[in-house]
Amino acid sequence: MMIVLTVFALSACADRRVVTAPGTHIPPDNVPQIGGPAPADTRVASRPSSVSPSPEEVRPASKKRSKALSRMLRKAERQLDQNQPDAAFNTLEQALSMDGRDPLTWHLMAKARLAQGRYRQAVSLAKKSDSLAAEHPEIKKKNAALIRKAQAGQG
After folding, report:
1. Which residue of 31, 54, 64, 129 is surrounded by the most CB atoms within 10 Å?
2. Domains defined for the chain, CATH in brackets
3. What does the alpha-carbon distance between residue 107 and residue 104 come to, in Å, rounded to a whole number?
């Protein structure tokens, strides 16, 4: 009986912390849309829209992407080109642990999900990429195209 009272007294004095299960880097499928569509880019493109910018070009000069992250993004792009979306997505999850605020990483994850036929998640990931791509109109344009494809795929 004394042990029960002691445990009860100690638990009353203890800090109450909410412990959550470790989450994933993937946003939920039902992310509400924030704001309207991205404004049209009025500048003349220096390359065809089908060519992805290199990982180094997507970062503003003030915040360079690490070489390791650039290598991972190139690897994921190769995997996507070779129709290996599962492998690409796994590579990109590792890239998120290096820099979770890189819009190209999120865009490529959306591209991988689109290739897998997971349209709602592709839209969600593209929207996340869009939210980080304020200084990257080329990524915003690619996200908009990807969202249109995913919505068409959903039916």
Report:
1. 129
2. 55-155 (1.25.40.10)
3. 5
Q: Answer whether 52's CB lies under 8 Å from 76's CB.
A: no
pLDDT tens by residue, 133-142 = 999 999 999 9
**What is the Cα–Cα distance from 112 to 85, expressed in whole angstroms?**
5
Q: What is the pLDDT of residues 22-39, one digit of tens each?
A: 555 566 666 555 555 555
Nearest to 93 by CA among 21, 25, 23, 22: 25
- Cα(67)–Cα(69) distance, rounded to whole angstroms? 5
Distance CA 71, CA 77 (A): 10
- Which positions of the chain have pLDDT values less than 50? 41-47, 49, 61-62
Q: How many CB atoms lie within 10 A of CB 94?
A: 15
Distances (CA, A) of 96 to 35, 39, 40, 91, 131: 25, 27, 28, 9, 15
